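hey so i finally got around to running the thing on that chain from the lab meeting. sorry it took forever, my laptop kept dying and i had to restart like 3 times. anyway pasting the input first so we r on the same page abt which one it is
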Amino acid sequence: MFEKILYPTDFSDVSKKALDYIKQLKDAGTKEVVALHTLDIREIAGLFGDEGTYVNVEEVKKKWEQGAKKKIKAVETQLKKSGFKVKVRLERGIPFKDILRVEQEENVSVVVIGSHGKSCVEEMLLGSCSEKVIRKSTKPVLVVRR
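ok and heres what got predicted. didnt touch it at all, straight out
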């Protein structure tokens, strides 16, 4: 049914819970998982030092990317141990936009995404990645909540 899954992760606890659901889909015929993490460029843009402090943005970006690579590698290892073919994608951009783009590029069967379970008021005011994916995705979306 869902042969190829897109698994966007921010490495949060709810993302780890979504990963557990994906592992259970192996018996339902899932063969491949595309693990996606987006380095949110909006977070980098917000970095600056205290008055009189110099922040080397390139150094911060490099450490951030190295940390993300290490975490996504751990996800890849878990999925491979569970018997999946795995493709890892580490992107720089805006998470929900990258999820929607990769969904099309990889021609996945379903998107399995964690949701932090914000209230409706918070989502209306702030928006959420999972909420935007649900509304704009052309593929089925399985949302895993806390």
